[in-house]
Known about the structure:
single chain; alpha+beta; DNA ligase i, domain 1; D-amino Acid Aminotransferase, Chain A, domain 1; CATH 2.40.50.140; 3 domains; seven-stranded antiparallel sheet; six-stranded mixed sheet; 36% helix
Amino acid sequence: MKHFAAFLEAILLTPSRNQKIAHMVRYFRDAPDPDRGYALAVLTGNLSIANVKAALLKDIVLQKVDPVLFGMSYDYVGDLAETIGLIWPDHDRKDLPTLSGLILELEAADKNRLPGIIAGHLSSATPTERWAIIKLATGNLRVGVSERLAKTALAEFGGKTLDEIEKIWHGLECPYTDLFQWLEGRGPAPEIHHHRTFHPLMLSHPVDEQKDFGNLNPSEFQAEWKWDGIRVQLVLGEGEKAMFSRTGDNIGHTFPDLMESLSGSAVLDGELLVGPDFTPLSFNALQQRLNRKTVTRKMQNEYPPFVRLYDILFDGAEDVRGLPLVERRARLESWIARNPQTKLDLSQIIPYESWEQLRGIRLQGAEEQGHEGVMLKHKDSPYVPGRPKGLWFKWKRDPRLIDAILMYAQRGHGKRSSFYSDYTFGVWKGNEIVPVGKAYFGFTDEELLQIDKWVRHHTISRFGPVREVSKELVFEVAFDSANASSRHRSGVALRFPRIHRIRWDKPAQEADRLETLNSFIE
């Protein structure tokens, strides 16, 4: 555990991407199995201890520390693990278990024994080790390591390509012993069943109209509508069916009416939508079906799901990802013809001759049919995991804009834990201001310092790490769409809100009203 804590601290304090990779390669080389496998799971967000929650940790520390002192410290530090690591009062000289030993102990402990086990280990640890224990237990790491960066380190460690790691990644399980044996040349590549596992999706880059359209030939690209659902992968065959989200989570159980209708053998890429007769409803309607443990017959009837197919990765058992897009499209059309479906249809290919013509089609489609915009895919592109340059682009419709008033500010996390960087904003409803959304990006580092200073000087109430501010500062907020929502006091939910501009010049009285926002509801 001490080795892992030192490793995490080194990564956290290293801003360089290449140095982070070097730290990971060194740890994978020096740490034994299964410790390095558990470390990999923690780094990639694939491990957390089910019974260890933030509320439990707070209860444990409040048995040792004055609640007022803890509250003030947490408000100042902004990170629960760091606060507990610094404020924990007890110290002894007992040895800490290994990383794998600690994880297995916490996973096996019942709820009655868990507080005592955690308190004992916190007392045996240094502040850095306490921080590491809490981070790994909650799965809330935030040390600047993405899953892709960890895969890059694995590739460098084992002398493999990133593509080789990507192809097998979602068929692996913690503690990844077979993966490390392969990377060290002590065993074969892990066996992956193509019809039982998720395959990393191919992603796109936003279009830079001025730069890209001057260099790209419109005749070389296929255009399709960009729909406002969620990207999914259907894995069918060998008597099994699964539907994975873009993060590799199997969400098929939430859509039994869809899964029961599927037949054939393939791995398919598409967009999950809800609506009757293949007519998509809003994203807010889709949200009524997401993340539900049980789905009533009424909900299935009100929000019938379907998948609009974009691509095919495996045609039966044949891997077709290396074929050009136009050939994969022909394969997809042939597969649908051989395997008629009631809840799958094909993404429409949009005919066009120039970027200017497509611009008009894009704007008209977004307004009339609710598209998010268009996708541009090079006709010769293979299906490559990740976000390769120059192959696929997304040309989203222009964002909607409103002027909203800052109501509350909350401390951020990680590098932003000392700043008020999470903002709740609202609009006028009669003579009151009602919250309509939250945003925590869209501003520069310099603007963050300005807003943080403003928040501190205009606080009128405090609620733990949250400050209520005087209703004076106006943000121009960009968002992709607005939907009716009974869960929000305003009755409106915004899709992807972000700060577009800070209107230091605009008085709050001139901010938008709820009626304006309601006009955007789709």
